[in-house]
Design brief:
By secondary structure, the chain is mainly β. The protein contains three helices and 26 strands. The strands form five sheets. Strands 12-24-23-14-21-20-19 form a seven-stranded mixed β-sheet, with no helix packed on it. It starts with 8 loop residues before the first strand and ends in a 12-residue tail after the last helix.
Length: 390
C-alpha cells in the first residue's frame, strides 16, 4: 500500500474509486461532519447539488455518493465518468464538533487517514501533531489533462465549517447584524488605473491593499503565435512559451509552480498559487494565467515570476511576450520580455515581495540557461531534475 505525504499526488487506478475517511477520535466527543465538494476551475461549487454530506448523500450528477458512515469511518463511492464536465476537483473535508474555545482541534484526534480503496490502496496518514485546525481538507481527487489523480492535502481552517464552506463558494447564512453607519468615502487612489509598464527607468512599483485583502491576484503571460524558422531548410515551428513561478512562504517552505512536471499548485491551500491552463502554441487569446489567493498574502514571502521556452529555438523577439499583473482596484502592471538572449531559454521576469503586508513588484527581465541557473542566481535552493509534459 503506497503512502502519500502531504502535498504529494498519484494517478487513480480506476474511475470508480472508493474513498475511506478514518478518524480515531481520541478525546473528541460529538459528531464529526464529513463532506465532499465538487469544484469547477475557479475552485468553487456551482450550487447545492455540488455538495455531499449527511443530509444530502449524493451529488446532482451522481458522481459522488456517501454510502456509509459511523463513529470512526465514512465511505464515499465515486463514478468519475458521471462527473459533469465543469467539475475539475472533488475535495473531501472533515469538521470537528463544538464551538468557541471548547472546540477540539485535529491535534485531539488519535489518528486521521484518507484512503483510496483498491487492489493497491493509496493511503494518506494525515499529520495532526500540533494542528490548530477545526475543519480540514483531507484529500482531493482532481482532473489533469483528462486523467484523474489523487492529492494528499491535510490543510484547513481554525474557524470550523464556515470558513471551509466559504472557501468553496458556499454561502453560509448568518443572523442579521444591526445596520452599520455608512463608511467614509475611500481616499483617492494613489495609483492611476491606466496600465503601468515597468522599465529599466521605472523598475519597481508598490501596491497597497484595498481593505483587508488584495483579493484574487492574477498574472497573465501572453505572447505571439508567430512560428520561428529552425534553420535554412527547416520548417517554421511554433515556440512553446510557458509561465511559472518560484515561491517562498512565510514559514520558509519553497517550491515551484509550472506545467512541466504537473506542478499546478492550489488556490485555496498551500501554496495559495495556481496555474490555470497551458497554452502550447500562443494561439489562445488569453494566454496562460497564475492565480494568487490575496486573502493569504500574509503567508507568502516572495514570488519569482518567470517564462521559459519549452519547445523551439530561443527567439524572444519573435514571441513578443509580456507579463501583466492584475490586482482588484489597481492599475494593471505590465513587464515586457525585452532584450532577449537567443542563447538562453529562461527569463526571470519579475520579483514580487511581501513588504510589511504590502506588495512590491520589481522588474527583472534576466535570461538564464534553465531553471537551475536561475534558481542559483536568486538563492532559492531547490533541486531540479529533467522533466517533460504529458
Amino acid at each position: 500500500m503506497p503512502n502519500l505525504q502531504k502535498g504529494e499526488n498519484a494517478p487513480l487506478p480506476t474511475t470508480t474509486p472508493i474513498v475511506r475517511i478514518q478518524i480515531g477520535r481520541g478525546s473528541i466527543v460529538g459528531d464529526i461532519d464529513i463532506s465532499a465538494y465538487l469544484l469547477g476551475e475557479t475552485g468553487k461549487v456551482s450550487g447545492d447539488p455540488d455538495m455531499v454530506f449527511y443530509g444530502q448523500r449524493q451529488s446532482g450528477d451522481g458522481a459522488v455518493r456517501l454510502t456509509s458512515s459511523n463513529d470512526s469511518e465514512t465511505v464515499f463511492s465515486l463514478n468519475l465518468a458521471s462527473a459533469a464536465a465543469r467539475v475539475q476537483r472533488i475535495a473531501f473535508a472533515a469538521t470537528l464538533p463544538g464551538e468557541g474555545v471548547a472546540r477540539p482541534t485535529f491535534a485531539n484526534a488519535a489518528s486521521v487517514a484518507f484512503e483510496i480503496e483498491g487492489a493497491d490502496p493509496i493511503r494518506f496518514p494525515v499529520p495532526t501533531e500540533g494542528a490548530i485546525e477545526t475543519s480540514m481538507i483531507l484529500g482531493e481527487i482532481y482532473r489533469r489533462n483528462g486523467v484523474w489523480k489523487v492529492r494528499a492535502v491535510g490543510q484547513g481552517f481554525s474557524g470550523g465549517l464556515k470558513p471551509l464552506a466559504e472557501s468553496f463558494g458556499v454561502v453560509v447564512a448568518e443572523d442579521p447584524a444591526p445596520t452599520p453607519a455608512p463608511p467614509p468615502p475611500p481616499p483617492p487612489s494613489a495609483v492611476s488605473l491606466s496600465k503601468v509598464t515597468l522599465t529599466k527607468a521605472q523598475p519597481k512599483i508598490d501596491l497597497t491593499k484595498k481593505g483587508d485583502s488584495f483579493g484574487e491576484i492574477r498574472i497573465n503571460l501572453n505572447w505571439s503565435a508567430a512560428p520561428v524558422k529552425t534553420g535554412f531548410f527547416g520548417r517554421p515551428r511554433s515556440v512553446d512559451l510557458d509561465l511559472g513561478c518560484l515561491y517562498e512562504l512565510r514559514d520558509g517552505h519553497r517550491g515551484g509552480i509550472q506545467a512541466l512536471g504537473d506542478s499546478f499548485g492550489a488556490f485555496n491551500f498551500e501554496p495559495y498559487i495556481e496555474l490555470s491552463g497551458d497554452d502550447r502554441s500562443g494561439a489562445v487569446a488569453e494566454g496562460e494565467w497564475l492565480r494568487i489567493n490575496g486573502a493569504r498574502w500574509g503567508e507568502i514571502r516572495r514570488l519569482l515570476i518567470y517564462a521559459f521556452i519549452y519547445e523551439g529555438a530561443p527567439n524572444w523577439a519573435a514571441t513578443d511576450g509580456r507579463i501583466t499583473l492584475y490586482t482588484p482596484g489597481a492599475a494593471p502592471v505590465e513587464v515586457p520580455l525585452e532584450e532577449g538572449d537567443s542563447r538562453k531559454n529562461m527569463c526571470a521576469v519579475a520579483l514580487i515581495e511581501n513588504v510589511d503586508g504590502q506588495m512590491r513588484v520589481s522588474r527583472e527581465v534576466r535570461y538564464f540557461n534553465g531553471h537551475a541557473e536561475m534558481d542559483r542566481s536568486f538563492h532559492w535552493g531547490l533541486r531540479w531534475v529533467a522533466g517533460a509534459k504529458d
